[in-house]
Design a protein that fits this description.
six-stranded mixed β-sheet, alpha/beta
Length: about 375
């Protein structure tokens, strides 16, 4: 019975996985899953048809032919207060199932053919490892190691000359007792920091910010499946840059001009202050409509990237979100300045349907 339940559960998970994979591009282009995200799982709606089932047991006199009315009289002729017209389609019901974020990332990786990331930074964190692999002289009785306790008592009895092979009775005393205990060890683990930067000047509207929010959710999902220890920081900028929390990042409404170098200078300050180059895998993602206030500031951005930022980063990603007010010039300048440099990846995000290809572009190199 247990084996059959496990088989049924595995089959159900495969059905869920197939449904998610079939509709993945729809999810990648919408914010449907973001509001249903937990710490480890996300709720995904699956359409289903609920089929009628026979139920065994007494119906207490409410079977066919036992109600009011005469023989041959049509059923359902009574007065009703229902509204609307009858239809011929089956009723549609929605079942929400929980899918782990790691599994969701795996499905996305298969669908977009994303390679696993080869991390460069190593950070050593303190962790409990090895289970109860150590022996202690003190501890709770529930963790007493009976074999080691008997061995100590036997050694003491033999050493004292009281052991009798003809009557081999060994009685442990308090000093003989040994207990299982945890052993602390240093566990090296890869760590990553993701810094999202977004232009919040007047030319970046609500739809552009929603595109950034959706793409960032999926980028986060993938990177969290690759690293156990990950931090996320948010930077907004117009003519000046500031670090903000996640809610402010996606909801801040600003106006005015754009000075992109202010965001890159703040990024450099963050990296120098908190994230050592040899310990962290660094992933900056910058989103803008491509307008910068001057060619001189673009030159400043290129200089900062070449001399300071790129040596510290696994990859620098720039996503240009199409806007009715943006010129798109900044991407052209980056493409020209970093042609052939795999550390810099740029992407045109024309609309929500462009999100899957943009994600593939950003994460497809496995850096």
């Amino acid at each position: 019975m247990v084996q059959r339940i496990d088989q049924d559960r595995a089959r159900f998970r495969e059905i869920v996985r197939g449904s998610v994979k079939k509709d993945l591009r729809k999810y990648l282009s919408s914010g449907e899953l973001i509001g249903k995200q937990g710490k480890r799982f996300v709720s995904i709606p699956l359409p289903q048809i609920e089929l009628p089932r026979f139920r065994f047991g007494s119906n207490k006199g409410k079977g066919v032919g036992q109600g009011e009315g005469g023989e041959g009289e049509p059923a359902g002729t009574g007065d009703g207060d229902g509204a609307g017209q009858a239809g011929e389609q089956a009723g549609q019901h929605v079942l929400e199932v929980e899918v782990g974020l790691d599994e969701l990332a795996q499905i996305m990786g298969e669908e977009l053919a994303l390679p696993r990331i080869e991390s460069k930074g190593k950070k050593t964190i303190r962790a409990l490892g090895g289970g109860y692999s150590s022996i202690s002289r003190v501890g709770p009785e529930s963790l007493r190691h009976f074999k080691r306790t008997f061995r100590e008592a036997l050694k003491r009895t033999i050493a004292s000359g009281t052991y009798d092979p003809a009557n081999p009775i060994v009685i442990p005393v308090k000093e003989d007792r040994r207990y299982r205990s945890f052993k602390l060890r240093e566990v090296p683990d890869s760590s990553a920091v993701v810094i999202y930067m977004m232009d919040v000047s007047g030319s970046m509207g609500r739809e552009q910010k929603e595109i950034v929010r959706i793409e960032s959710f999926w980028i986060d999902t993938w990177l969290r499946s690759q690293y156990k220890n990950i931090e996320v920081r948010y930077v907004v900028h117009d003519a000046a840059a500031q670090e903000v929390d996640q809610h402010t990042f996606y909801n801040l409404r600003e106006s005015g001009g754009t000075k992109i170098s202010s965001a890159y200078e703040l990024l450099l300050e963050l990296l120098e202050r908190k994230y050592a180059q040899d310990e962290w895998n660094v992933y900056p993602f910058h989103f803008s409509d491509g307008d910068n206030w001057s060619a001189r500031d673009t030159e400043r951005c290129v200089s900062l990237m070449k001399e300071k930022l790129l040596p510290r980063c696994n990859q620098f990603a720039y996503g240009q979100v199409k806007s009715a007010y943006g010129s798109g010039q900044f991407k052209k300048d980056l493409d020209s300045a970093f042609r052939g440099d795999e550390r810099v990846v740029t992407s045109d995000i024309l609309d929500r349907d462009s999100i899957p290809e943009s994600i593939r572009h950003f994460l497809g190199k496995g850096r």
